[in-house]
Every structure is written in structure tokens, then in C-alpha cells.
Amino acid sequence: MPSYDDDVPTQEEENLLKQLRENQEEQQRLRVISEVKNLVIGSKRCKTAFYRVGTIEILCNLLQEFSSINTNSNELLIEIIDCISSFAKSSNKKIVDRLMELGCIQQLFLLLSSRTDSIQLCESSLRCLRSFFLPKLSSTTFSKVDYTNPFLTPISFVLLCDQDAQKPPSLITQTPKLVQLPSFEHYSPIEILFEIPQSLDVLLRLISVSKCAQLSIVEILCCLCVNNERQKQLVDKDFVPVVFRLLLQNISENQQQQQNSKLCSINLTNEYIIGVCLKFLCSLCHENASIAQQLHDTISSETNQTLCEVVSSLLCKIHRPVVISYYASKFFVNLCKTKVLDADHPSVAIESLSTLIHLCTKSILNKCVYLHIECLDTLIYLLNGNSILHKNATYTEQLLNKLFTYIFTPSKVLDEQIDELLLVQIRSSALTLLAVLSSYDEEIKKRIADEGNLIATAIECYRMPYVSLQLAALRLFHGLSRSVHQLRTTFNDTICDILLDAIKSSDLDIVKISSCVISNIVLEFSTCRTRLLNGGILSILLALLTHTDHDLCINSIWALRNLSYLSTLKIKQDIINGITVDRIYSLLERCTDEQFLICLLSLLRNFFDEKDTNALLTIFNEEKLLSTLQRLREQTHPEEIQRELITLIDHLNSNNNSSEQRLSSDSVGSSCRTSLFPDYTCDEMDQLDCS
């Protein structure tokens, strides 16, 4: 018996590989390759062992050799390609990279361009191509369906306010494109595909070959949607009407077969294609407003139905396969997040939201765990910044109870032997969704915070050695910190100590989200303020003002602004001494960052409240300060900055004119209730969250 601990071929396998290297008659070679294929399929050990002794190079040479021969070698080619396809599915990056180095993708496209006489050969080649693009799922995967694009860099989670949701996606994510491929992925299959002349034309031409070809091609197209540029290239090649036609055709065939009670296996083929067509449409319009609008306006020339009507009809049917339900919901989520549909549109607020909640709360099976995680993440994406939907999502206890189960006792719904990383993933998603739901409505905040052991469990999650869980716990604290009631009741010394630890972390994401929480809990009415000050938070925030990360600088000045609100004269003096008066003047005169300038002006307003104005004006030189502010007032600035300047100037002037009524501290402090974004007012809790 072979030793499965050693990634080396057994003697029997060595003999087989020796035969593979020898020049043999075609039928003998066919038999050997078939045996090699049967060994490597599903065997991580065999793939690694055969890779180490050069089997991949032999297969690629055979592929090139027999692709150029005009004789009838289709059967042998299919076996070679299927064997390569198995290697391409490997989770070992070295194996996949080596296949790409050897030009397998280019050779497959060359074959698809020249040898179209065999449908089976075409299908085999397309399946092999697809293997390069699909996620390399681990051995613990229970689902044969993948829900992610491995080449898509996830957008960093930012806990949004409602006014953030009014901004275009590019402003929220602060990235002009959806993602860029990492530069270190020199052998990215996506880059290789787009470098091959006519590659998209080849796929477009072959999409009518068979249903198997359709499935493979559309799966590949899904993986190509990695940024706005690639999405546009696919739209320009007219893939939208082609895929829409496929969607309609397979929906119609599926309905006819169900009515005629024909073979179930045929139905499944149609359902798979429906699912992958929906997945492609979701990928195509993700974070792309112009394409989302184009899809919204797409009408079938054959049925006169809009694409939205067709997708909506899939959500109205009961007993739909979960994959179809998921991608149909996600389609409308993407239209909502790109502002093509409002959050209260029935397709979003009723159909998609209720479907996603149903999918992630129904009885979980191990084989569906990835789907449940994706549904949770899609709910996070939809509900974040759309508080109008929060009440709908929590109208019944169904969703909250399931989230608590995922966090407290995931073993009740998952197999005890399931991969721990999956447990971490589903707990992280559940905590983050609770953070989103707790970020706006006070009743929902209270319901979540009052759940027994939730805060203690979140603290425990932060202390676990998983960054995703640490971030999720901090996000929950962030959502709850937007409530005055929660600041006075839920936040304790342990949470303060966690935040003081987190803001010193070497992980930038953890530092940024902890700075967001601290920005809220340093307010005057928070029970945490004193402990944070005793823990040295002021010096930490002052140091972060010069950090190279822009978002962290904004969070720091925001936290200092909140800390100064209704604070003692000593705290204000410490902040001024930490920043220095000279630097404050320099920032006022030279700062070009509108967000930072608004926070700085608000900070000054908080300095000069009624009782401390005279004491602090001598430090600043009142005449110089007023002239500096007046010069700013004469410049072209957004309304928010102008409003801050007018209020601050009026208040300083009133200090010199006893006949004029001075602004009360409450009025001056109202700057803390103003959002960084114009025309939307919110309370102190609603901050620019750059986590």
C-alpha cells in the first residue's frame, strides 16, 4: 500500500509514468493516460507526487503534439485534457502556476479555434479552462457549487451611515475601480485570457455548441468580472443579450419539463444554467452603476419582458433551487447598492430581503454552509447604510435568533467535525451582520445588546487568534457605540481595555475600526471616557494624526473633536499642546482635505465654549485667529465648511461684544451633530467610518 504521508509516487505509479514517457502506439498511450487520470482525480497526494516527477510537462507536451496532428486523435486529446483539468483543480498553487507557465490556457484556446469538429472535445477543453478559474476549495468543502470569485479582491467592510448610502459607490469605497488584480499574480489566468487575441470571440462563438459548453463558458465569464474595465469589455462583446437569451430559454425549458414530468436530470441541467446566468449578471453589475442601469433597462426582443421582470419571477416561485434564489436576490441587491433601485423597491425590500433571510435561517446542512455564509455576507452588503430595511429584517425574531445561534452555539447547526475556519467564518459574518443591524435603530440596538452573553461572547471572540473574529467583535462594539443609552450601560472597563489594546495593534484594519469605536465612546456622557484617558488614549490619538493612512487621520481628528466636546479646560489644553497652535494655524491655511478641515473647525468650536473662551483665546491670539478664519471664509468651500466658519466667527465676535448674546455651549456643541456629508444631519454617533 502507498504511504499517503509521502508525496512521492509508489513503485506501481512509477511504472505507469515510465510508460507515459515512452513512445507508444495510440491505444496503449490512451490506456496509460486514462489510468493516470483516474489516479489523480480526487487525490491530492497523487497530484503532488506526479507534479514533482514532471508529469505535468509530459501532459502539456502531449497536448501540444496531438493538437497539431490532423489525424483523428480526439479521444486521446480528451483524456489528456481531462487529466490536465484535474491538475488545474488542485489547491496547490505551484501546480496551477506551472500549468499556466507551460502555456496550457493558450494551447486550449488554440485547440478551440482550430478543432471544432468534435462537440465532446470542445466540451472537455472548456471544462479544463473553467478549472483554472474556479475557486480551489478545500477538502472540507461540502458544496459542489462555488459562490465566490477567487480573483476578486473583497471591498473592505465599512460600517456606513444612511447618508453614506446616498453617495456613489466609488466615494464610499474610495476606489475608482472595483478591484485591481494583485501585481504578484504574474500568471493570473484572467490576464492570460485577455492577452490571447480573439479569446472572447471564441467563447462567444462556442456558447451555442451545447448546454455543457454554455455552463463552462458562463462560469468563466463570471470569473472575468474582476473590475469595471473587464466588466465593460464583456458588455462591449454583447454577452448580455446572449446570456439573457440563455436564461429565458432554460427557464422556459425547465417549466415545460416540470409540466410534462420528464426526467429530473434534464431539469437539473437547465437549473444549473439558470443559476450560472444569474451569477454572471450579478458579477457584471457589481459596484458598476452604468452596467447596472443597462441591465435594468434590458428588454428581450423575443418575449418583450425586461430582465428585472424575469429575475423577479424567479423570486416569486416557491420551491426554487437555493442557488437560483440566492443569485436572483443578489441581482437586485447589486442594483440597489449602485442606486439603480431604491432600498424600498419591492424587488429589494420584499423579494430579495425575505429570500436571503429565509436562505440563511433555514435548517442548515453542512453541504450548504458556504451558501449560508454568502447569504449572511450579502445581507451585510445590502443592509449596511440602508437602515430603512433594518425593521423589515428584524420584524420577526427569526433572523436574530439564527444569528445568535451561529455566534453562541454553531455546533448545534454544524457538524462538530467541520473545519474550524468555517466556524470562524460563519461566526464573523453573524457578528458583522449584528453590527450592521445595531448601527441605527435604538430598539434594535437594545434587543441585540440585551441578548444574554452577547457582549461577553464578543469579548471572547476578540481574544481569539483570528483577525476576522477580532474585526467582527470590534464592528459590533462600533454599531452599539452609536447609541447614547448603550454608551451608558453596555460599555464597560473590559471593552475599554480591549479598545486600548486594539488601537495599538500591528494590523491596520484593527487599528482603524478601534479608532472608530473610540471616536464615539470618548464623548462626555460615556462611562468609558475616564478609563480611556487614564489609559493614554489622548497621546495615542495625537500620534495617529500624523499617520500615513488618510482614513486613520480622519478618525483621529474626529475622536479628538468628540473628546473636546464639553470637556474640562485641562483636556482642551492638553489637546492644543499636543497638536500645537502653530500646527493648527498651518492646517487651517494649507489643509486641502475637506473632511479633515470640517473636523478641525468643529474641534475649534468645541474649544471655545462659553466657560473656556477667554482662557484659550489668549493662547491662539484672537486677532490672528479671526483673520485666518475670515480668509478661509472668503475662499470657495462647500456649504458644510462655510457653515462651520460662520458659526465659529460669530461666536468669537460675540465674545468681544457683550451686548450680543453669546452662543450657549449646547449650540456650539451642535457641530458634533453634523455629518461630514452636506445636507444630511445625524447625531454624534454617525461618523465617517474608515475602518
Structural features, described:
The protein contains 39 helices and no strands. It has helices at residues 11-21, 26-40, 44-52, 55-67, 74-88, 93-101, 104-114, 119-133, 169-173, 189-195, 199-206, 211-224, 228-236, 239-260, 264-285, 289-296, 307-316, 322-337, 346-361, 369-383, 390-393, 398-408, 420-437, 442-449, 454-462, 467-480, 484-489, 493-502, 508-521, 529-534, 537-544, 550-564, 569-579, 581-590, 594-607, 613-620, 622-634, 639-656, 665-668.
List the uncertain runs: 1-5, 138-144, 162-185, 658-691
**Rounded to an integer, what's the Rg over CA atoms?**
30 Å
Overall body shape: elongated
Number of DSSP strand runs: 0
Main location: cytoplasm
Organism: Adineta ricciae (Rotifer)
Keywords: Cytoplasm, Nucleus, Repeat
Protein name: Armadillo repeat-containing protein 8
Relevant terms:
mainly alpha, Leucine-rich Repeat Variant, 691 residues, 4 domains, elongated, disordered C terminus, disordered N terminus, repeat, ARMC8/Vid28, single chain, nucleus
Summarize the structure.
With 691 residues, the protein is mainly α. It has helices at 11-21, 26-40, 44-52, 55-67, 74-88, 93-101, 104-114, 119-133, 169-173, 189-195, 199-206, 211-224, 228-236, 239-260, 264-285, 289-296, 307-316, 322-337, 346-361, 369-383, 390-393, 398-408, 420-437, 442-449, 454-462, 467-480, 484-489, 493-502, 508-521, 529-534, 537-544, 550-564, 569-579, 581-590, 594-607, 613-620, 622-634, 639-656, 665-668.
